Amino acid sequence: MAIIMLVTTLLSMALLCEEATAAAYVRPPARPNLMLFAGGKKSIQPDQVHVSLAGPNRMRVSWMTSSMTAPSTVHYGTTSQQYTAIASGVKKSYSYFLYKSGQMHHVVVGPLLDNTTYYYMCGGSGREFKFTTPPPAGPDVPIKFAVVGDLGQTGWTKSTLEHIENSNYNVLLLAGDLSYADYYQPLWDSFGKLVTPYASAKPWMVTLGNHDIEGIPYIVDPFRAYNTRWQMPYSESGSVSNQFYSFETAGVHVLMLASYADFDEDSSQYKWLQADLARVDRSRTPWLIAVLHAPWYNSNAAHQLNGDRMMAAMESLLYEARVDMVFAGHVHAYERMTRVYSMKRDPCGIIHITIGDGGNREGLAQSFLDEQPEWSMYREASFGHGELDMVNATHARWTWHRNDDDEAVVADDIWITSLSAPESQCSVSSSTKRGVSNRRVLRPLGT
Question: Which residues form the Purple acid phosphatase N-terminal domain (predicted)?
Answer without folding.
Answer: 46-133
